[in-house]
Amino acid sequence: MNKYAIDGFNDIHYNELKVYDFIKDIIENTMESYGYRQVLTPSFESYDMYNIDGAFPRDKMFKLIGNDGKVLVLRPDATIPIARMAASRYRNSQEVLKFGYITNIFRDSSSTTDFRKEFMQAGIEYMGNSLPDCDGEIIALSINILKELGIKKIHIDMGNVTFLNGLFDEIQIEVIERVKILSYIENKNIGELKAYLDSIEVSKEISQILCHVPMLFGKFKDTVNQAKKLCINQKMTAALNTMEETYEIINSYGYEDYIFIDLGFTNQFNYYSGLIFKGYINGIGEAILSGGRYDTLSSTFGVNRPASGFGINISLLMDTLINRSDEKDDFNILFLYDDNKRRESLNLARKLRSQGIIVDYIHSSLEEGIKKENYKYILKCIDNSFELSTKTDKQLLREEEILTKLKEAKLCI
Protein backbone atom coordinates (compact mmCIF):
# COMPACT_ATOMS: atom_id res chain seq x y z
CA MET A 1 0.00 0.00 0.00
CA ASN A 2 1.39 3.38 -1.03
CA LYS A 3 1.65 5.55 2.08
CA TYR A 4 0.71 8.60 0.00
CA ALA A 5 -2.51 7.10 -1.38
CA ILE A 6 -5.80 8.29 0.12
CA ASP A 7 -8.67 5.83 0.45
CA GLY A 8 -11.55 6.69 -1.85
CA PHE A 9 -9.50 8.85 -4.24
CA ASN A 10 -8.34 6.87 -7.27
CA ASP A 11 -5.92 7.38 -10.12
CA ILE A 12 -7.39 6.96 -13.60
CA HIS A 13 -5.24 5.20 -16.20
CA TYR A 14 -5.14 5.67 -19.96
CA ASN A 15 -7.34 2.69 -20.84
CA GLU A 16 -9.95 3.92 -18.34
CA LEU A 17 -9.79 7.41 -19.83
CA LYS A 18 -10.42 5.89 -23.25
CA VAL A 19 -13.66 4.43 -21.90
CA TYR A 20 -14.43 7.76 -20.18
CA ASP A 21 -14.08 9.61 -23.49
CA PHE A 22 -16.50 7.15 -25.11
CA ILE A 23 -19.05 7.59 -22.30
CA LYS A 24 -18.62 11.37 -22.24
CA ASP A 25 -19.20 11.70 -25.99
CA ILE A 26 -22.37 9.61 -25.83
CA ILE A 27 -23.75 11.58 -22.88
CA GLU A 28 -22.92 14.99 -24.34
CA ASN A 29 -24.42 14.14 -27.72
CA THR A 30 -27.59 12.69 -26.17
CA MET A 31 -28.10 15.64 -23.81
CA GLU A 32 -27.58 18.09 -26.67
CA SER A 33 -30.05 16.20 -28.88
CA TYR A 34 -32.72 16.84 -26.21
CA GLY A 35 -31.91 20.55 -26.03
CA TYR A 36 -29.79 20.65 -22.85
CA ARG A 37 -26.91 23.16 -22.70
CA GLN A 38 -23.85 22.39 -20.63
CA VAL A 39 -22.85 24.42 -17.59
CA LEU A 40 -20.11 24.10 -14.98
CA THR A 41 -20.11 25.36 -11.39
CA PRO A 42 -17.09 25.90 -9.07
CA SER A 43 -15.41 22.98 -7.28
CA PHE A 44 -15.68 24.92 -4.01
CA GLU A 45 -18.99 26.21 -2.69
CA SER A 46 -20.25 27.75 0.53
CA TYR A 47 -20.95 25.25 3.31
CA ASP A 48 -23.99 27.29 4.32
CA MET A 49 -25.53 26.81 0.87
CA TYR A 50 -25.55 23.03 1.24
CA ASN A 51 -26.82 23.32 4.81
CA ILE A 52 -30.05 25.16 3.92
CA ASP A 53 -32.92 23.27 5.59
CA GLY A 54 -30.67 20.22 5.83
CA ALA A 55 -30.69 19.87 2.03
CA PHE A 56 -27.56 17.74 2.11
CA PRO A 57 -26.21 15.47 4.91
CA ARG A 58 -23.49 17.33 6.82
CA ASP A 59 -21.38 14.25 7.47
CA LYS A 60 -21.05 13.55 3.71
CA MET A 61 -19.24 16.80 2.92
CA PHE A 62 -15.50 17.56 2.75
CA LYS A 63 -15.04 20.91 4.50
CA LEU A 64 -12.19 23.42 4.71
CA ILE A 65 -11.65 26.96 5.91
CA GLY A 66 -10.95 29.66 3.32
CA ASN A 67 -8.42 32.46 3.87
CA ASP A 68 -11.30 34.75 4.86
CA GLY A 69 -12.43 32.32 7.56
CA LYS A 70 -15.53 31.10 5.71
CA VAL A 71 -16.32 27.40 5.68
CA LEU A 72 -16.16 25.93 2.19
CA VAL A 73 -16.99 22.48 0.84
CA LEU A 74 -15.81 20.53 -2.17
CA ARG A 75 -18.84 20.11 -4.44
CA PRO A 76 -20.79 17.15 -2.92
CA ASP A 77 -23.77 17.57 -5.24
CA ALA A 78 -24.37 19.21 -8.62
CA THR A 79 -28.07 20.10 -8.38
CA ILE A 80 -27.85 22.65 -5.55
CA PRO A 81 -25.15 24.85 -7.16
CA ILE A 82 -26.92 24.74 -10.53
CA ALA A 83 -30.14 25.85 -8.81
CA ARG A 84 -28.12 28.69 -7.21
CA MET A 85 -26.62 29.66 -10.57
CA ALA A 86 -29.99 29.57 -12.33
CA ALA A 87 -31.61 31.73 -9.65
CA SER A 88 -28.85 34.35 -9.86
CA ARG A 89 -28.53 34.47 -13.67
CA TYR A 90 -32.15 33.84 -14.74
CA ARG A 91 -34.48 35.76 -12.45
CA ASN A 92 -37.68 35.22 -14.47
CA SER A 93 -39.38 32.33 -12.66
CA GLN A 94 -41.46 31.53 -15.77
CA GLU A 95 -38.40 30.93 -17.95
CA VAL A 96 -37.80 27.32 -18.96
CA LEU A 97 -34.17 26.25 -18.52
CA LYS A 98 -32.52 23.01 -19.63
CA PHE A 99 -28.99 22.47 -18.32
CA GLY A 100 -26.60 19.57 -18.62
CA TYR A 101 -23.27 18.99 -16.87
CA ILE A 102 -20.31 16.66 -16.51
CA THR A 103 -18.28 17.26 -13.38
CA ASN A 104 -16.49 15.74 -10.39
CA ILE A 105 -18.36 15.10 -7.15
CA PHE A 106 -16.70 14.86 -3.73
CA ARG A 107 -18.69 12.94 -1.15
CA ASP A 108 -17.94 10.74 1.85
CA SER A 109 -19.84 7.72 0.56
CA SER A 110 -21.70 5.27 2.76
CA SER A 111 -22.13 2.81 -0.10
CA THR A 112 -21.39 -0.83 0.65
CA THR A 113 -20.12 -1.48 -2.88
CA ASP A 114 -18.58 1.77 -4.15
CA PHE A 115 -16.13 3.48 -1.81
CA ARG A 116 -15.06 6.35 -4.07
CA LYS A 117 -15.05 9.72 -2.37
CA GLU A 118 -14.43 11.48 -5.67
CA PHE A 119 -16.27 10.38 -8.79
CA MET A 120 -17.30 11.72 -12.16
CA GLN A 121 -20.97 12.49 -12.66
CA ALA A 122 -23.09 13.68 -15.55
CA GLY A 123 -26.63 14.92 -15.32
CA ILE A 124 -29.38 17.26 -16.42
CA GLU A 125 -31.58 19.82 -14.68
CA TYR A 126 -34.90 20.76 -16.29
CA MET A 127 -36.22 23.94 -14.65
CA GLY A 128 -39.48 25.84 -15.06
CA ASN A 129 -41.65 22.86 -16.03
CA SER A 130 -44.01 21.34 -13.45
CA LEU A 131 -45.73 18.94 -15.87
CA PRO A 132 -45.30 15.14 -15.81
CA ASP A 133 -43.96 15.53 -19.37
CA CYS A 134 -40.82 17.00 -17.80
CA ASP A 135 -40.29 13.97 -15.56
CA GLY A 136 -41.10 11.62 -18.44
CA GLU A 137 -38.48 13.26 -20.65
CA ILE A 138 -35.85 13.09 -17.93
CA ILE A 139 -36.38 9.39 -17.27
CA ALA A 140 -36.55 8.65 -21.01
CA LEU A 141 -33.29 10.56 -21.54
CA SER A 142 -31.55 8.57 -18.81
CA ILE A 143 -32.67 5.32 -20.45
CA ASN A 144 -31.64 6.62 -23.86
CA ILE A 145 -28.10 7.32 -22.62
CA LEU A 146 -27.76 3.80 -21.24
CA LYS A 147 -29.07 2.27 -24.47
CA GLU A 148 -26.66 4.38 -26.55
CA LEU A 149 -23.85 3.00 -24.40
CA GLY A 150 -24.88 -0.50 -25.46
CA ILE A 151 -26.41 -1.47 -22.11
CA LYS A 152 -29.40 -3.79 -22.46
CA LYS A 153 -30.33 -4.74 -18.88
CA ILE A 154 -31.86 -1.51 -17.56
CA HIS A 155 -34.12 -1.28 -14.50
CA ILE A 156 -35.65 2.02 -13.35
CA ASP A 157 -37.41 2.15 -9.96
CA MET A 158 -39.89 5.01 -9.55
CA GLY A 159 -40.99 6.27 -6.15
CA ASN A 160 -42.61 9.39 -4.75
CA VAL A 161 -41.67 11.11 -1.49
CA THR A 162 -45.16 12.69 -1.38
CA PHE A 163 -46.74 9.26 -0.91
CA LEU A 164 -44.97 8.68 2.41
CA ASN A 165 -45.20 12.36 3.37
CA GLY A 166 -48.97 12.08 3.04
CA LEU A 167 -48.94 9.10 5.37
CA PHE A 168 -46.74 10.91 7.90
CA ASP A 169 -49.23 13.79 7.88
CA GLU A 170 -51.62 11.47 9.71
CA ILE A 171 -49.34 10.98 12.72
CA GLN A 172 -47.50 13.27 15.15
CA ILE A 173 -43.86 12.18 15.29
CA GLU A 174 -40.49 13.86 15.77
CA VAL A 175 -38.01 14.22 12.89
CA ILE A 176 -35.66 11.67 14.44
CA GLU A 177 -38.53 9.16 14.65
CA ARG A 178 -39.43 9.79 11.03
CA VAL A 179 -35.83 9.17 9.93
CA LYS A 180 -35.78 5.92 11.88
CA ILE A 181 -39.02 4.74 10.25
CA LEU A 182 -37.74 5.61 6.77
CA SER A 183 -34.54 3.67 7.45
CA TYR A 184 -36.50 0.53 8.38
CA ILE A 185 -38.73 0.93 5.32
CA GLU A 186 -35.84 1.40 2.89
CA ASN A 187 -34.01 -1.63 4.31
CA LYS A 188 -37.30 -3.58 4.16
CA ASN A 189 -36.86 -4.54 7.80
CA ILE A 190 -40.53 -5.09 8.57
CA GLY A 191 -39.99 -6.83 11.94
CA GLU A 192 -37.94 -3.98 13.40
CA LEU A 193 -40.29 -1.43 11.81
CA LYS A 194 -43.36 -2.93 13.50
CA ALA A 195 -41.61 -3.12 16.88
CA TYR A 196 -40.48 0.51 16.60
CA LEU A 197 -43.95 1.74 15.58
CA ASP A 198 -45.40 -0.04 18.61
CA SER A 199 -42.78 1.59 20.85
CA ILE A 200 -43.76 5.11 19.76
CA GLU A 201 -47.48 4.27 19.92
CA VAL A 202 -48.45 4.74 16.27
CA SER A 203 -52.08 3.77 15.65
CA LYS A 204 -52.76 0.26 14.42
CA GLU A 205 -54.19 1.45 11.09
CA ILE A 206 -51.18 3.63 10.22
CA SER A 207 -48.77 0.99 11.52
CA GLN A 208 -50.26 -1.65 9.22
CA ILE A 209 -49.97 0.66 6.20
CA LEU A 210 -46.37 1.60 7.03
CA CYS A 211 -45.46 -2.07 7.43
CA HIS A 212 -46.94 -2.77 4.00
CA VAL A 213 -44.98 0.01 2.25
CA PRO A 214 -41.65 -1.91 2.12
CA MET A 215 -43.41 -4.55 0.00
CA LEU A 216 -44.71 -2.02 -2.52
CA PHE A 217 -42.21 -2.78 -5.25
CA GLY A 218 -42.33 -4.61 -8.56
CA LYS A 219 -44.08 -4.25 -11.90
CA PHE A 220 -45.62 -0.82 -12.31
CA LYS A 221 -49.31 -1.48 -12.86
CA ASP A 222 -49.63 -4.29 -10.33
CA THR A 223 -47.80 -2.34 -7.63
CA VAL A 224 -49.61 0.96 -8.16
CA ASN A 225 -52.94 -0.84 -7.84
CA GLN A 226 -51.82 -2.32 -4.51
CA ALA A 227 -50.69 1.12 -3.34
CA LYS A 228 -54.06 2.72 -4.20
CA LYS A 229 -55.74 0.46 -1.64
CA LEU A 230 -53.54 2.01 1.09
CA CYS A 231 -54.29 5.66 0.33
CA ILE A 232 -55.99 7.44 3.21
CA ASN A 233 -55.73 11.06 2.02
CA GLN A 234 -55.60 13.17 -1.12
CA LYS A 235 -51.83 13.71 -0.97
CA MET A 236 -51.15 9.97 -1.24
CA THR A 237 -53.65 9.58 -4.08
CA ALA A 238 -52.19 12.56 -5.97
CA ALA A 239 -48.69 11.07 -5.70
CA LEU A 240 -49.84 7.85 -7.37
CA ASN A 241 -51.78 9.77 -10.03
CA THR A 242 -48.62 11.70 -10.92
CA MET A 243 -46.65 8.47 -11.18
CA GLU A 244 -49.27 6.98 -13.50
CA GLU A 245 -49.22 10.06 -15.74
CA THR A 246 -45.44 9.93 -15.92
CA TYR A 247 -45.53 6.21 -16.68
CA GLU A 248 -47.89 6.77 -19.60
CA ILE A 249 -45.55 9.44 -20.99
CA ILE A 250 -42.59 7.06 -20.72
CA ASN A 251 -44.81 4.51 -22.46
CA SER A 252 -45.08 6.98 -25.36
CA TYR A 253 -41.28 6.92 -25.62
CA GLY A 254 -41.46 3.12 -25.85
CA TYR A 255 -39.52 2.58 -22.62
CA GLU A 256 -42.26 1.23 -20.34
CA ASP A 257 -40.62 -2.20 -20.07
CA TYR A 258 -37.76 -0.64 -18.09
CA ILE A 259 -40.03 0.98 -15.47
CA PHE A 260 -40.86 -0.50 -12.06
CA ILE A 261 -42.14 0.88 -8.76
CA ASP A 262 -40.53 0.97 -5.33
CA LEU A 263 -42.49 3.18 -2.95
CA GLY A 264 -40.24 2.27 -0.03
CA PHE A 265 -36.96 3.83 -1.17
CA THR A 266 -35.90 7.31 -0.13
CA ASN A 267 -33.12 9.69 -1.13
CA GLN A 268 -30.36 11.09 1.08
CA PHE A 269 -30.95 14.56 -0.41
CA ASN A 270 -33.74 16.31 1.45
CA TYR A 271 -34.59 18.70 -1.38
CA TYR A 272 -36.68 16.19 -3.36
CA SER A 273 -40.38 17.06 -3.26
CA GLY A 274 -42.21 14.52 -5.42
CA LEU A 275 -41.35 11.86 -7.98
CA ILE A 276 -37.96 10.19 -7.44
CA PHE A 277 -36.25 7.39 -9.33
CA LYS A 278 -33.14 5.20 -9.39
CA GLY A 279 -31.59 3.27 -12.26
CA TYR A 280 -29.74 -0.06 -12.20
CA ILE A 281 -27.87 -1.94 -14.93
CA ASN A 282 -26.48 -5.41 -15.58
CA GLY A 283 -27.27 -6.76 -12.12
CA ILE A 284 -25.06 -4.21 -10.28
CA GLY A 285 -26.45 -3.68 -6.77
CA GLU A 286 -25.52 0.01 -6.64
CA ALA A 287 -27.76 2.51 -8.47
CA ILE A 288 -25.98 3.86 -11.55
CA LEU A 289 -28.25 6.94 -11.68
CA SER A 290 -30.80 8.72 -9.51
CA GLY A 291 -32.94 11.82 -9.63
CA GLY A 292 -36.37 13.29 -9.24
CA ARG A 293 -38.44 16.43 -8.76
CA TYR A 294 -37.29 19.27 -6.50
CA ASP A 295 -39.90 22.03 -6.84
CA THR A 296 -38.99 24.00 -3.70
CA LEU A 297 -35.17 24.11 -3.91
CA SER A 298 -34.94 27.15 -6.20
CA SER A 299 -37.08 29.26 -3.85
CA THR A 300 -34.30 29.12 -1.23
CA PHE A 301 -32.26 31.20 -3.69
CA GLY A 302 -35.03 33.72 -4.27
CA VAL A 303 -36.73 32.38 -7.41
CA ASN A 304 -39.76 30.11 -7.13
CA ARG A 305 -39.19 27.65 -10.00
CA PRO A 306 -40.24 23.98 -10.30
CA ALA A 307 -37.53 21.59 -11.47
CA SER A 308 -36.57 17.99 -12.04
CA GLY A 309 -33.32 16.26 -12.93
CA PHE A 310 -30.99 13.31 -12.52
CA GLY A 311 -27.32 12.44 -12.11
CA ILE A 312 -25.52 9.42 -13.57
CA ASN A 313 -22.33 8.00 -12.04
CA ILE A 314 -19.76 7.93 -14.85
CA SER A 315 -17.17 6.24 -12.65
CA LEU A 316 -19.49 3.26 -12.07
CA LEU A 317 -20.27 3.20 -15.79
CA MET A 318 -16.54 3.02 -16.52
CA ASP A 319 -16.23 0.00 -14.23
CA THR A 320 -19.04 -1.67 -16.16
CA LEU A 321 -17.76 -0.87 -19.65
CA ILE A 322 -13.99 -1.14 -19.10
CA ASN A 323 -13.86 -4.79 -20.15
CA ARG A 324 -15.38 -3.89 -23.49
CA SER A 325 -12.45 -1.69 -24.48
CA ASP A 326 -9.78 -3.30 -26.65
CA GLU A 327 -6.52 -2.27 -25.00
CA LYS A 328 -4.50 -3.83 -27.85
CA ASP A 329 -5.93 -1.26 -30.24
CA ASP A 330 -4.63 1.68 -28.20
CA PHE A 331 -1.74 2.04 -30.68
CA ASN A 332 -1.76 1.00 -34.32
CA ILE A 333 1.99 1.03 -34.92
CA LEU A 334 5.11 0.67 -32.80
CA PHE A 335 7.89 2.41 -34.70
CA LEU A 336 11.34 1.38 -33.43
CA TYR A 337 14.14 3.61 -34.68
CA ASP A 338 17.94 3.79 -34.35
CA ASP A 339 20.12 6.90 -34.10
CA ASN A 340 21.54 6.48 -37.60
CA LYS A 341 18.04 6.29 -39.14
CA ARG A 342 16.36 9.00 -37.08
CA ARG A 343 15.70 11.40 -39.96
CA GLU A 344 14.18 8.77 -42.28
CA SER A 345 12.12 7.32 -39.44
CA LEU A 346 10.82 10.70 -38.25
CA ASN A 347 9.84 11.61 -41.82
CA LEU A 348 7.79 8.42 -42.26
CA ALA A 349 6.24 8.73 -38.78
CA ARG A 350 5.13 12.27 -39.65
CA LYS A 351 3.51 11.09 -42.88
CA LEU A 352 1.71 8.24 -41.13
CA ARG A 353 0.34 10.55 -38.44
CA SER A 354 -0.88 12.97 -41.11
CA GLN A 355 -2.95 10.05 -42.42
CA GLY A 356 -4.62 9.59 -39.04
CA ILE A 357 -2.53 6.59 -37.94
CA ILE A 358 -1.50 6.31 -34.30
CA VAL A 359 2.28 5.91 -34.19
CA ASP A 360 4.18 5.17 -30.99
CA TYR A 361 7.71 6.28 -31.87
CA ILE A 362 10.32 4.71 -29.55
CA HIS A 363 14.10 4.22 -29.65
CA SER A 364 15.05 0.59 -30.35
CA SER A 365 17.16 0.46 -27.18
CA LEU A 366 13.88 0.46 -25.20
CA GLU A 367 12.37 -2.43 -27.15
CA GLU A 368 12.53 -4.89 -24.25
CA GLY A 369 10.29 -2.67 -22.15
CA ILE A 370 7.45 -2.51 -24.71
CA LYS A 371 4.38 -4.77 -24.74
CA LYS A 372 4.34 -5.54 -28.44
CA GLU A 373 1.02 -7.36 -28.22
CA ASN A 374 -0.58 -3.93 -27.82
CA TYR A 375 0.25 -3.06 -31.42
CA LYS A 376 -1.12 -4.16 -34.77
CA TYR A 377 2.17 -3.47 -36.55
CA ILE A 378 5.86 -3.21 -35.65
CA LEU A 379 7.89 -0.96 -37.94
CA LYS A 380 11.71 -0.71 -38.19
CA CYS A 381 14.02 1.19 -40.53
CA ILE A 382 16.54 -1.21 -42.11
CA ASP A 383 19.07 0.20 -44.57
CA ASN A 384 17.00 2.05 -47.21
CA SER A 385 13.76 0.14 -46.53
CA PHE A 386 11.33 -0.44 -43.71
CA GLU A 387 10.47 -3.73 -42.03
CA LEU A 388 6.73 -4.03 -41.33
CA SER A 389 5.80 -6.91 -39.02
CA THR A 390 2.56 -8.39 -37.71
CA LYS A 391 2.02 -11.45 -35.53
CA THR A 392 1.99 -13.65 -38.62
CA ASP A 393 3.95 -11.79 -41.26
CA LYS A 394 7.11 -9.75 -41.85
CA GLN A 395 7.84 -7.71 -45.00
CA LEU A 396 10.59 -5.39 -46.19
CA LEU A 397 8.98 -2.44 -47.99
CA ARG A 398 9.78 0.99 -49.36
CA GLU A 399 8.19 4.09 -47.86
CA GLU A 400 5.49 4.43 -50.52
CA GLU A 401 4.68 0.71 -50.21
CA ILE A 402 4.21 1.14 -46.46
CA LEU A 403 1.64 3.89 -47.01
CA THR A 404 -0.17 1.86 -49.69
CA LYS A 405 -0.37 -1.24 -47.49
CA LEU A 406 -1.67 0.65 -44.48
CA LYS A 407 -4.31 2.38 -46.64
CA GLU A 408 -5.42 -1.05 -47.86
CA ALA A 409 -5.61 -2.15 -44.20
CA LYS A 410 -7.86 0.91 -43.61
CA LEU A 411 -5.59 2.35 -40.93
CA CYS A 412 -5.43 5.67 -42.75
CA ILE A 413 -8.21 8.24 -42.65
From TrEMBL:
<dbReference type="InterPro" id="IPR004516">
    <property type="entry name" value="HisRS/HisZ"/>
</dbReference>
<feature type="binding site">
    <location>
        <position position="121"/>
    </location>
    <ligand>
        <name>L-histidine</name>
    </ligand>
</feature>
<dbReference type="Pfam" id="PF13393">
    <property type="entry name" value="tRNA-synt_His"/>
</dbReference>
<dbReference type="InterPro" id="IPR045864">
    <property type="entry name" value="aa-tRNA-synth_II/BPL/LPL"/>
</dbReference>
<dbReference type="GO" id="GO:0140096">
    <property type="term" value="F:catalytic activity, acting on a protein"/>
</dbReference>
<keyword id="KW-0028">Amino-acid biosynthesis</keyword>
<keyword id="KW-0368">Histidine biosynthesis</keyword>
<dbReference type="GO" id="GO:0006427">
    <property type="term" value="P:histidyl-tRNA aminoacylation"/>
</dbReference>
<feature type="binding site">
    <location>
        <begin position="77"/>
        <end position="79"/>
    </location>
    <ligand>
        <name>L-histidine</name>
    </ligand>
</feature>
<keyword id="KW-0963">Cytoplasm</keyword>
<feature type="binding site">
    <location>
        <position position="107"/>
    </location>
    <ligand>
        <name>L-histidine</name>
    </ligand>
</feature>
<comment type="pathway">
    <text>Amino-acid biosynthesis; L-histidine biosynthesis; L-histidine from 5-phospho-alpha-D-ribose 1-diphosphate: step 1/9.</text>
</comment>
<comment type="similarity">
    <text>Belongs to the class-II aminoacyl-tRNA synthetase family. HisZ subfamily.</text>
</comment>
<dbReference type="GO" id="GO:0016757">
    <property type="term" value="F:glycosyltransferase activity"/>
</dbReference>
<dbReference type="GO" id="GO:0004821">
    <property type="term" value="F:histidine-tRNA ligase activity"/>
</dbReference>
<protein>
    <recommendedName>
        <fullName>ATP phosphoribosyltransferase regulatory subunit</fullName>
    </recommendedName>
</protein>
<keyword id="KW-0328">Glycosyltransferase</keyword>
<comment type="subunit">
    <text>Heteromultimer composed of HisG and HisZ subunits.</text>
</comment>
<feature type="binding site">
    <location>
        <position position="125"/>
    </location>
    <ligand>
        <name>L-histidine</name>
    </ligand>
</feature>
<comment type="function">
    <text>Required for the first step of histidine biosynthesis. May allow the feedback regulation of ATP phosphoribosyltransferase activity by histidine.</text>
</comment>
<dbReference type="GO" id="GO:0000105">
    <property type="term" value="P:L-histidine biosynthetic process"/>
</dbReference>
<dbReference type="InterPro" id="IPR041715">
    <property type="entry name" value="HisRS-like_core"/>
</dbReference>
<dbReference type="InterPro" id="IPR004517">
    <property type="entry name" value="HisZ"/>
</dbReference>
<dbReference type="GO" id="GO:0005737">
    <property type="term" value="C:cytoplasm"/>
</dbReference>
<feature type="binding site">
    <location>
        <begin position="271"/>
        <end position="272"/>
    </location>
    <ligand>
        <name>L-histidine</name>
    </ligand>
</feature>
<feature type="domain" description="Aminoacyl-transfer RNA synthetases class-II family profile">
    <location>
        <begin position="1"/>
        <end position="388"/>
    </location>
</feature>
<dbReference type="InterPro" id="IPR006195">
    <property type="entry name" value="aa-tRNA-synth_II"/>
</dbReference>
<keyword id="KW-0808">Transferase</keyword>
